[in-house]
Amino acid sequence: MTLLDVPEPCLVVFIGEAGAGKSTLAARLFSAEQVLSSDAYRRIVSGDEHDQSATIAAFRRLHRDLHVRLAERRTTVVDATNVTAYARRALVRIAVKHAVPAIAIVLDLEPALVQARTATRPGRIVPSDAVSQQLRDLARSLRREELTREGYLAVHHLRTPDDVERLATRAPTP
Hints:
The chain has helices spanning 22-29, 38-46, 55-71, 85-97, 111-119, 128-143, 146-149, 161-166; strands spanning 2-4, 11-15, 35-37, 76-79, 102-107, 154-158, 167-169. It is α/β, with parallel strands linked by helices. It has one domain: 3-Layer(aba) Sandwich (Rossmann fold). Strands 3-4-2-5-6 form a 5-stranded parallel β-sheet, sandwiched between helices. The protein has a two-stranded parallel ribbon with strand order 1-7. It is globular, with a radius of gyration of 15 Å. It starts with a strand and ends in a 5-residue tail after the last strand.
């Protein structure tokens, strides 16, 4: 078991392509009340969590709620792909504004595994080319060591399904 030390309060940023297992891991480690999911916000603004045209409005609401939660000193988890520095930058800035540390959990699994998982997801299949682009974006972030410069207190890099399974936390509850 790998124990993840989660300060109270903090921002936890999940990073990984569609199908990597971010939502499953977030649900295992944190309470539902702590998790802000981009899919859930798409559902709120458009009625359909798969509606990519709702992404801008969804993130506007997610960021607003993140501000509120961190101002209230509540540990918050952001469940989204966050594979580009652009996507992560706003999250870290919000944490800094509220003087709350941010930690990153990176799911960096084998591309073939991620593509296979994505192709068999119940309810939604993310196009292979979209997942390939996310894989490239994540690899670029890791290759350029962007995460180490973005202001995270810690970056937890999970490379195998066993790494993911072994991760546990003493995450504070709401």
